[in-house]
């Protein structure tokens, strides 16, 4: 009957143990070989600038929000980030658990037993009460670390969304550039054929023929460079979306992002640290370290361990009592760990302030760059309209025989340069808006609140 409590305790302990399950590795790629059909609401993705948008790619391709949704769900790097968040939550769970008590047992046997001698033993449970003093602080640190991991994951999702938008913009705008270059190439190819025929009849000079051929070769070079860029961007997009390189990703040609509201931007700037997941993650990390600093200070006090003992010696004399173990803080006093935790907390404090300063600087820089590019784009569009009118007049004069081919080719080259400038500026402004939406957390109302996180 005396063995029953011990047997029952061991049975219950074994019943709560975890069991091993194998997780084999795979040596083959696990890309998706086609665009999946998903049913995910964007309000579950944690990015405030994504409006409600069901993932339903049509025959005309994916729009910018479709690409962002697919990137968040299937990006390989985000899968690893979610695993990291799972580790952080497991560590927080581990920190929240109370330490187990200890049970010590020993037995004594006489090598030459006397008559009436018995087997001696000592048995007694004990518990380290000193670990209870730091448990609350370390558990709090674990919770803040879990919050930090979740917020870092959210911030990484924002970056993936921004990267998906950038790739979408660059591919669509790059296709616009290819279309313009294709029109110019067809036009110049016709002119080169005409010039070659006129040169064979000695109706024009060699310099006119060379100018036409040089212009065509230059457009061919620009086309090849643009095609290489598109190929790289397409592969980058497939990698971001977790798709096999051979999977075609049709994209819509619509590229639209909200205009920047300066007044609303000023209001957003006032609460920027409460919107940015990376800043909130740094704050949670600082709070976790502050809890560790508190735990290190508490740990300088004497560690107390109390146990009960029950014993019988080999003379068959039984006894029971208790033992107390108390550390003496004379030399160490945990001063080294306190200094480390304090210095680490100072470093996190400075890192948070530096990141806040950088966040405001990034927003200010992007807003000013947007204004500069807006003025430049306005002037480029005015120049483009003038060039289009000049081109129409030149074509009319050329058709009437009042201008030579060289003037027409130079006009086309100037028009192409202005078209490329306008496309480049429009793409730059769109990319700046993507960056701005990322660093401010979108244009929607405040998503995060300080009260949502452990202080």
TrEMBL record:
The highest taxon in the source lineage is Bacteria
Is Signal tagged as a keyword?
A: yes
Q: Which residues form the signal peptide?
A: 1-20
Alphabetically sorted, this entry's keywords are: Signal
Which InterPro entries does the entry mention? MdtP/NodT-like, OMP_efflux
Return the Pfam families for the record: OEP
* Protein family per UniProt: Belongs to the outer membrane factor (OMF) (TC 1.B.17) family.
The protein here is known as TolC family protein
**Native species:** Herbaspirillum chlorophenolicum
**Taxonomic lineage of this organism?**
Bacteria, Pseudomonadati, Pseudomonadota, Betaproteobacteria, Burkholderiales
């Amino acid at each position: 009957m005396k063995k029953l409590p011990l047997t029952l305790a061991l049975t219950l302990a074994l019943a709560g143990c975890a069991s091993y399950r194998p997780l084999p590795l795979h040596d083959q790629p696990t890309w998706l070989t086609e665009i999946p059909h998903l049913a995910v609401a964007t309000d579950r993705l944690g990015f405030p600038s994504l409006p409600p948008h069901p993932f339903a790619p049509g025959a005309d391709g994916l729009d910018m929000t479709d690409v962002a949704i697919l990137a968040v769900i299937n990006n390989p790097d985000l899968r690893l980030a979610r695993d990291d968040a799972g580790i952080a939550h497991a560590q927080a769970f581990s920190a929240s658990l109370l330490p187990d008590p200890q049970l010590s047992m020993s037995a004594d046997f006489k090598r030459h037993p006397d008559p009436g001698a018995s087997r001696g033993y000592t048995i007694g449970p004990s518990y380290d009460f000193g670990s209870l003093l730091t448990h609350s602080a370390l558990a709090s640190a674990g919770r803040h670390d879990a919050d930090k991991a979740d917020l870092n994951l959210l911030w990484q999702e924002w970056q993936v969304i921004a990267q998906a938008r950038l790739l979408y913009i660059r591919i669509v705008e790059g296709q616009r550039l290819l279309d313009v270059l294709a029109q110019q190439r067809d036009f110049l190819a016709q002119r080169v054929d005409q010039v070659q025929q006129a040169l064979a009849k000695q109706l024009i000079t060699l310099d006119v023929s060379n100018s036409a051929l040089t212009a065509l070769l230059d457009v061919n070079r620009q086309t090849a460079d643009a095609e290489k860029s598109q190929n790289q961007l397409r592969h980058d997009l497939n990698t971001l979306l977790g798709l096999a390189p051979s999977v075609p990703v049709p994209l819509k040609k619509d590229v639209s992002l909200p205009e920047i509201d300066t007044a609303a931007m000023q209001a957003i700037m006032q609460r920027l640290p409460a919107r940015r997941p990376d800043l909130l993650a740094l704050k949670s990390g600082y709070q976790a370290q502050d809890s560790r600093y508190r735990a290190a200070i508490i740990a300088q006090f004497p560690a107390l361990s109390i146990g009960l003992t029950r014993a019988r010696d080999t003379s068959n004399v039984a006894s029971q009592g208790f033992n107390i173990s108390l550390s003496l803080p004379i030399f160490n006093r945990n001063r080294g760990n306190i200094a480390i935790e304090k210095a680490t907390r100072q470093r996190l404090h400075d890192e948070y302030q530096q990141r806040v300063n950088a966040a405001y600087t990034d927003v200010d820089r992007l807003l000013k760059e947007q204004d500069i590019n807006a003025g430049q784009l306005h002037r480029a569009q005015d120049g483009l309209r003038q060039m289009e009118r000049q081109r129409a007049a030149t074509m009319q004069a050329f058709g009437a025989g009042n201008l030579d081919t060289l003037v027409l080719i130079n006009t086309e080259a100037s028009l192409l340069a202005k078209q490329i400038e306008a496309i480049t500026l429009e793409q730059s402004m769109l990319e700046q808006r993507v960056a701005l939406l990322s660093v401010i957390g979108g244009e929607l109302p405040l998503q995060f609140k300080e009260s949502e996180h452990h202080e």
